[in-house]
UniProtKB/TrEMBL annotation:
Organism: Sinomonas atrocyanea
Family matches, as InterPro entries: DNA_pol_lamdba_lyase_dom_sf, HHH_MUS81, PHP_dom, PHP_phosphatase, Pol/His_phosphatase_N, Pol/histidinol_Pase-like, PolX_PHP, UCP036978_PHPhdr
SUPFAM superfamilies to which the protein is assigned, alphabetical: DNA polymerase beta, N-terminal domain-like, PHP domain-like
Residue ranges of every copy of the Polymerase/histidinol phosphatase N-terminal domain listed in the record: 101-182
Protein name: PHP C-terminal domain protein
Protein origin, superkingdom: Bacteria
C-alpha cells in the first residue's frame, strides 16, 4: 500500500470520528513530508529505519509507513476501517443513498484545514458526483475570507483541479459562503457572485440582534438573485470547542415563506455541533414549501462524511427526497442555481 495514501486515509477516518486536532495533524503532516520525497527514498528509508529520524515523523506514523512499504495494510488503518463500518447516525439510509453532492465545504483558502485538491479527492472517494467549495467572504477576517482578487484566483484553481481529474464524472463546483451583512446585502461583488456555481448566504455577525432587524436582514439576502442556499439559519452551537450559542431570533414563517417563493434552499447543516435548523424549524420550512440542501459545512476531508447526520435528520422530519437539491443530478442542480441570475 502507498504509505502517503495510508497516512491520509488514517487522517480522514480520525477527522470523521472528530478526533483531537493534534492527532489528525500528525498523520496529515507525515503524509505531506512523504509526498515530497521520491517514493523509492521513502521505501528505502522506511526499511532501514532512517525515516524515523526525519522531522515530523513519529513512532506511530513511521510504523504506518513501514507496514505500507512492506505491502501490508497498516494495522491502525484496519482498525479505523473496522470502526467506520458503523454508520455515524442512526436512520436516514434512504435519503443518504440518494444524495449526490454537498453545497457547503471549506478549504485552507479560508478556515479549512486542507487544500482544495484534497477536499475534491475525498469527495470523489466518497462517491459524490459534485462538491461545492464555499470558502468565506472578506468581512469574516477571522476566517481569512476571500476578497475579490483571491476569489478570482480560487475560481481558476478549481478549474485546474477539475482538469486534473480528467472528467471522470466528478466535478468540484465554484462557490462561496457569503456573509449576509447587517443591511442584508451580500459580502462580495455581484459580478463575482454571478460567476459562481453556488452561493450559500449565512449570517455570522451580530447573531443576537432583535428579531425585527434579523428578519429584515435575512429577507433582503433571500431576495438577492445570487442567493441559492440559506446557510445554518439560526447560527446555534450545541457543543464543541467554541462552546454553545443560542439560536438567533427571527420570524421563521416569513423567512421560510420568502425562501419558498424565491426557490432558495434552506440548509440542513450536518455538523454535529450545529444541527441547524432545529427540528421545529425544519417542520416550519417544510410546511412553507421550501427546498432543502443537506450540507456538511466540512472544514476537513473526513468531515465530508457528516452528510450522514443531515440525512438522518431530514428523514426523521419527513423531508421528501425530491425537495432536497443535493439529491438532484448536476445538470438540474446548476439549472436551479443559475435560474435567477
Amino acid at each position: 500500500m502507498d504509505p502517503v495514501e495510508a497516512l491520509r486515509e488514517i487522517a480522514f477516518w480520525l477527522e470523521r470520528e472528530q478526533a483531537e486536532t493534534y492527532r489528525v495533524k500528525a498523520f496529515r503532516t507525515a503524509a505531506g513530508i512523504l509526498a515530497a520525497m521520491p517514493p523509492e527514498d521513502v521505501a528505502a528509508r522506511a526499511q532501514n529505519g532512517s525515516l524515523r529520524r526525519v522531522k515530523g515523523i513519529g513512532d506511530r506514523t513511521f510504523g504506518v509507513a513501514r507496514e505500507a512499504v512492506d505491502g501490508e495494510v497498516p494495522a491502525y488503518l484496519r482498525e479505523l476501517r473496522d470502526r467506520a463500518a458503523t454508520p455515524l447516525a442512526e436512520g436516514g439510509e434512504s435519503i443518504r443513498g440518494q444524495l449526490r453532492g454537498d453545497l457547503h465545504a471549506h478549504s485552507d483558502w479560508s478556515d479549512g484545514g486542507s487544500p482544495l485538491a484534497e477536499m475534491a479527492e475525498a469527495a470523489r472517494w466518497l462517491g459524490r458526483e459534485y462538491q461545492a467549495l464555499t470558502d468565506h467572504s472578506p468581512t469574516l477576517t477571522i476566517a481569512r475570507g476571500l476578497d475579490a482578487e483571491r476569489l478570482r484566483r480560487q475560481i481558476d484553481a478549481v478549474a485546474e483541479v477539475n482538469a486534473s481529474l480528467g472528467g471522470d464524472g466528478f466535478r468540484m463546483l465554484t462557490g462561496i459562503e457569503v456573509d449576509i451583512l447587517e443591511d442584508g446585502t451580500l459580502d462580495q461583488t455581484p459580478e463575482l457572485l454571478g460567476r459562481l456555481d453556488v452561493v450559500v448566504a449565512s449570517v455570522h455577525s451580530k447573531l443576537r440582534s432583535e428579531p425585527g432587524p434579523m428578519t429584515r436582514r435575512m429577507l433582503a439576502a433571500i431576495d438577492d438573485p445570487h442567493t441559492n442556499v440559506l446557510g445554518h439559519c439560526t447560527g446555534r452551537l450545541l457543543r464543541g470547542s467554541r462552546g454553545t450559542r443560542p439560536e438567533s431570533q427571527f420570524d421563521a414563517a416569513r423567512v421560510f415563506e420568502a425562501c419558498a417563493a424565491a426557490g432558495v434552499a434552506v440548509e440542513i447543516n450536518s455538523r454535529p455541533e450545529r444541527q441547524d435548523p432545529p427540528d421545529r424549524l425544519i417542520q416550519t420550512a417544510l410546511d412553507a414549501g421550501c427546498l432543502f440542501s443537506i450540507d456538511t459545512d466540512a472544514h476537513a476531508p473526513g468531515q465530508l462524511d457528516f452528510l450522514q447526520y443531515g440525512a438522518a435528520r431530514a428523514e426523521a422530519n419527513g423531508v421528501p427526497a425530491e425537495r432536497i437539491v443535493t439529491t438532484w443530478p448536476l445538470a438540474k442542480l446548476l439549472e436551479w442555481t443559475s435560474r435567477r441570475r
